[in-house]
Write a structure and sequence with these properties.
Structural class of chain B: alpha/beta
Number of strands of chain B: 10
Radius of gyration of chain A: 27 Å
CATH class of chain A: Mainly Alpha
Oligomer: heterodimer
Largest sheet of chain B: 6 strands, mixed
Largest sheet of chain A: none
Radius of gyration of chain B: 18 Å
CATH architecture of one domain in chain B: 3-Layer(aba) Sandwich
CATH topology of one domain in chain B: Rossmann fold
Strand content of chain B: 15-25%
CATH superfamily of one domain in chain B: P-loop containing nucleotide triphosphate hydrolases
Number of helices of chain B: 9
Distance between the termini of chain B: 35 Å
Largest interface: A-B, 21 and 35 residues
Strand content of chain A: under 5%
Helix content of chain B: 25-40%
CATH architecture of chain A: Orthogonal Bundle
Helix content of chain A: over 70%
Strand order of the largest sheet of chain B: 6-7-8-3-9-10
Number of strands of chain A: 0
Chain lengths: 268, 256
Amino acid sequence: MSVEAPPAVAVDRPRRPAPSLTLIAGLLLAAAFTVWAALQIDFTLAPLWRNFSNGWVVISQFLQPNWSFIFRVWDAWVETIAIAIVASAVGVLVGLLFAFGASRITNRSGWMYRTVKTVLSVIRSLPDVAYVLIFVALVGVGSLAGILALIMFNIGIAAKLTAETIDAVDPGPLEAADAGGSGTFSRARWAVLPQILPNYLSYCLYIFELNIRASVVIGIAGGGGIGQVINVQFSRFNYENVAAITVAIFVVVLLIDQLSQYLRRRFV
Amino acid sequence: MIRLEGVTVRYPNGVVGLDGVDLEIPDGQFVVVVGLSGAGKSTLIRTINGLVPITEGSLTIDGREVAGASKRELRDIRSSVGMIFQSFNLVKRTSVMNNVIMGQLHGIPAYRSLVGAWTKEEKEIAFQSLERVGIVEKTWTRASQLSGGQQQRVAIARALAQDPKVMLADEPVASLDPPTAQMVMKDLQRINRDLGITTLVNLHFLDLARKFGDRVIGMRAGKVVFDGTGAEADDAVFEDIYGRSLTAEDTLPGTP
C-alpha cells in the first residue's frame, strides 16, 4: 500500500492552543498554599518514630484483645443498632418530605423553595458530633441524644440526595399530570415518587450504614451505645477491651455493608 | 367550541411559536394539524390546555378564557381536556390501573390520593376506559412491561378517565410502527365518533392526515396556511404547507 507523500508546502493546520496561564497560576497557587499550611503547623512525621517506644505498652495490650468482653457489653451493641434503626427511619421519612420541598419540580412556590433550601443548608452545616453535644446539653447523656443527633444528620443527607434525584426525573409524566389538572400533592405522589423510589430506597440503606459507623463517634461524645463503652474503657486504660470492641465494630460494619448491598441489588 | 382569536405565542428566547392564529373548532370535530417540525403544531395543541401560555390574543373553550385563568381555574379547565403524547408519558414503575386513575386526580382529594385509596367508582371508570381501548386485561400489569402501542392505549384510557370534552394528541403515533399507528388512529377516531369528544391530533404523515382528518389544518412558521377537509388536502396543498416537494418520508411506510 503506497501512501502519497504529504505536500511539501505546509497547509494551514489548526495550531494546538497555548496552555492556559490561569490554570498554571492556579496550580502554583495551590502548591504554595499547601507548603504554607504545612510550615504554619510545623508539620512533621518524626514523633511517629520518636514516641514509638512509649506507645509500645499500649500497642502490646491492643495486640491481645479480650474477646470475651465483646459479649459482656451485649446491651450496648443492641442499643447501637436500635439507635441506628430508629434514627434512620425517622430521618429518611422527614428527609423525603424536605426533599419534595427542596426541588423546583415538586415545589412551585418560589419563597417556600428558598425557605426549605435555607433550612436544609443550616441543618447540614453542623457535623454529627456537634449535634450530639447540643442534644446532650438539652436531654442529657444517653441514647435519646444520639438518636436526635443522627436524625438531624440523616434529614440533611436524605433531603439533599433525594432532591437532586427529583430534579432529574423524566418530565413526561409530570406534563401528563399537569395536563390532567392534578394538584401539587397528587402530582408529587403519582408522577414523581414512583420514579425516584429505587434511588430513595438505596439512599435509605446507605444512611443506615452511615448510622452504624457514626454511632461509635456519637457514643464517645455522649450519645449512648457502643461508643460510650469505648469511651469508658479508654479512660480506664483497658486497651485489650477497646481492641476487642474495635475488631467487632469492624466486623459488624462489614456485615451490615454486605447486607445492605445485597438488599440494594435485590430491590433496586 | 374552541375559539382562538389573534393568538400569538412568543417563547422567552424570542422564537415565535404562533403568529396571530384565528381558529374556530366546533364540538365533536376530528381535526388533524399538519406541518413541518417547528411550524407551531405542538405549540397550537399545548396552548389549548394552557401548557404553553399565550402572549397575545384570546383562547376560549366553551366560553371560558384559558389565557388569563388563575391556577385553580386552569386546573379546572384542564380536567375536561384530555391529552396524549408522542412518548406516552406513563409512569412506568406503577400499574396500568394507577396510571389510568391519574386522569382522575383532579377530582380526588389529596389525603386519598397520597395513600392511593381509590374508590370503587374511580376504579370502575378506569376499567371502562381501558375496555374502550381494548386493553382491560392489562389492568394490573406494570406500565413498563407493555409495548409502545399498548402504552399509548393506556395513555388514551388515562385521558378518557377524565371524561373529557376535548382530546388533544401531540404526535401520538410518531413513536409507533405503521400498523400500530393505524390502530391507535382508529381508536382515536372511534372515541371521537362514539363519545363526541372534540379531537385535535398533530401528525406529520400526510396519508394519515387525509384518511382520518374531517378537517385538516396546515401550519407553517406559526401561521395557519391551510384549513379544509381531508379530501381537499391534495399533494399540491401539502407541498405548499411544507414549502417543498413531497418525499417518501411524508407517508406512513408500508401502507398503500
